[in-house]
Amino acid sequence: MAQGQAVTGVINSAEDNTPLPGVTVVLKNSTVGTTTDQDGRYRITTTGNNPTLIFSAVGFATQEVAVGNRSTVDVTLAVDQKTLNEVVVVGYGTQKKSQVTGAIVQVSSKEIQEMPITNLGQALQGRAAGVDVTQTGSKPGTVPKILIRGRRSFNATNDPLYVVDGIPLAGGYEDMNPSDVASMEILKDATATAIYGARGANGVVLISTKRGAAKGKTTVSYDTYAGVSKPLDKVQLFSGPEFAEFVREAYRATGGYKDANGNAVPTGVADPVADAKVAVLGGDPAVAKGIANGTDTDWQSLILQNGFVQNHSIGIQGGSDRTQFYLSGGYFKDQGISEGLDFTRMSLRANLDHQVNSFLKVGLSSYMMYSIRNGENLNPYQFTLQQNPLAAVYNDDGSLKFSPTNDALLTNPLAEIVPGAQVDETKKYRIFNSIFAEAQIIEGLKYRVNFGPDFTIARYGRFIGAQTNARKGGAPQASNENRFGFNYTLENILSYNKNFGGKHNLGITALHSIQRDNYETFRADVQGVPAESQQFYSLGTASSILSTPSNLIQWTINSFMARINYDYNDKYLLTLTLRRDGSSRFGENTKYGNFPGVAVGWNISNEPFLKNAPWIDLMKIRAGWGQVGNQGVAPYQTQGLLSRTAYAWGSTAAFGYRPSTIGNPDLRWETSSTANVGVDFSFLSGRVQGSLELYQTNTTALLLSDQLPGSIGFSAVTRNVGETRNRGIELGFTTINVNSGSGFKWSTDFTFMKNTEAIISLYNGKIDDVGNGWFIGRPLSTVFDYKKIGIWQSDEAEKAKSYASEVGQIKIQDTNNDGKINADDRVIQGSDVPKFSGGITNRFNFKGFDLSFFFYARVGNLIRSEFHRNLNQLAGRYQQIKVDYWTPNNPTNEFPRPKSNQEFPVYNTTLTYFDGTFVKLRNINFGYNFSPAVASKLGMESLRIYSSIQQPFIWSKYRSKYNGVDPETTDLNAGGSGVTPATSVYTLGLNVRF
Fold it and tell me: pTM (2 decimals)?
């Protein structure tokens, strides 16, 4: 070969024939070297008469290849069992695991596909240390809440940034088809997230979708599953007879349950005359009939049903040396466990990469999605939890009984699911694109331009018919809201990678980025729709228009970033990052912020003194410090805003405008400074591998409402005041417990994380804000309330009276022992931050069979269950949770005696706090891979059939003792009567490759 000849090629993995980024390519006996890009491609200029290239990557055996007269050299690297098989995306590039200096955790495609999931957030739960994922409900289309290393801010967002194929999303990730995802990398510390500056303040989730491959063969895949979703159980309510006795006791407590002679009827005794005097019982002819007939209506069972879930994904992957493609289509539908609740998503993806010539490459990633969600703001199930179980469902003629009792507030729950009675429909269209062109200017120097337009169109329609609980025979209401969003990102990236002397590796990345977002909304609310069949489609025919709000929100971020990566002989590592962000959301003098990061690493396992320790594959210590900003305030908040108001103009009203907020042109970024120390390890040829992290994040200049005297006309102004702190430890590791020659393999994945939030200061310094529940040294959400220590018993009547209470009512702790109960007796009850959480997955393989099961746990957090307030009124009017309430014959200390003259028990909030600890068996998956010979006879490359059970068991005192629904979906701000039961999903699936 002539000297100075360019050689190009693609490096693939022998394990799954996918491209390998980050492979080092060195010309033997020279200082010339390069690395493969994210598509496994490389380009190098050779010298000498008989050039030889050396290909090496962490996790793969090093390979030498004689070039000869070839200009294209494609190589397949065999897996090296003695090292880590990981190359990770770090944002604007890739790195070998051994060279990563930041806190990054990866979730692979195998883990994503391991269980049937609706969205990508579910794949992160318990599988990525430091990532706290909690379900927010069981309705179809519900998206989990994701926090990375806790909360930092009160008013600014705590949500992470999601980046898909290099383009930051303006919205969430829920529109993505999980089957399209190749891997997810979570950037956790500031040294890793600093490259995204302000948008990376709460961590970054990098989502890489599947690409084509230069295999010369097109592969078609079909992945499908279908199954049934069932309520894990129902809320335990009083039966008909139990409810009747509960009501009687409520009236006994107030002297309202007396026999024909006016004598009080004792507890446990039913008297027809006394029943007839109680409006909820014999005073209502329908209920009296139910008592006489022994009626016990289970309203829950009339609403609940078995749901149905199905998913179908087709992927076509292939390409040639110059062009690679990946095409996919997806269909997902989740029919909920209650009529009127469902979610459907249809998607198309096209990823295309083309090498135009030796120095220019272009590509496109296009994703189109259409979804329909019904019932986002509906929950017919909630109406079953308060309806009288002694009432009948139908009239004598078989028609639905709209008002089963005389109580005007309680209508028939089945009326809510009559077709067309309640409509709550959201249709969403989204087109997300990532377009790039990449040019190799000179060897090692590349220029890349990324353009990512993101279109979202959504229509929300709402109709409430006359025969519903909300209207109770009144005029129907309807609304129609249209939302249009257009977000684009434009990035210019220069990257330079060079190997010097075979031991010095230098990587430089420079970036300019601009992101702009436009979001428009228009809504019309009307009343008096003439024909209910019109629903929300003909609002102009309604008798009255209630409101027509509309809005436009725009914001822009302008950014510059530079990053330097250096390593010496894969032993000593250095990363320097600086990002400068400017946001239109801030004032003229404070738009820009600078966010630096520095990290170092030491691969101890590459030192000579450990070369004689073959059991150590990798031992790396790394440390870093960095700062990131948070711009998560609403646009225009730095300006003084106006609100419409009414003025008296003679004898008529006139509309005008008044100042509603105080502008603050000096409002600036919140700044989070994170120090992180980590250890990456791999022992015994990969039998034990993982990472340990210790970190502390201090967030200063919080975007917080500073209190103002009301006399000036404003109660607060947003300023940069206060500080919070997060400290934590994270551990994630994988072990191969058994790997026998017989084909049996057992491996375990384990994650553990503990994060401690603390408020360091507020707008008034180190002084607690009791009204907001903000306490110095405590988490951002802390419960401060009276403490229930029992129920006043019969022998404590005088003492109860001294505290202005009575026997059978809640006994409150007299914290300061002053003989009275007042605000000074409140104590800190706890926080929704768990003491720790984690997950463990065990996988077993034997001769084609595979079995896995995944446990997830949160321990030590507090639940404030509004569910136990709204459905535990103890007034005797409504059906409620079955609780162990106090009576003279049942002197319990759990719940107070019912009383008909109080809507809620005094100090009822003390009945809503519970230990939120739970352990869930999140998933069981059992499958069988048919042998290649059998698959070939069926015309397939591979075939797998599997069965999966999601969430078959939940272990929680909140559920087992206190009849709670789901401890995971109940936090300090949720868990009202609108909750739906936890569900289990049973599915059968196929994975087919052609």
Answer: 0.86
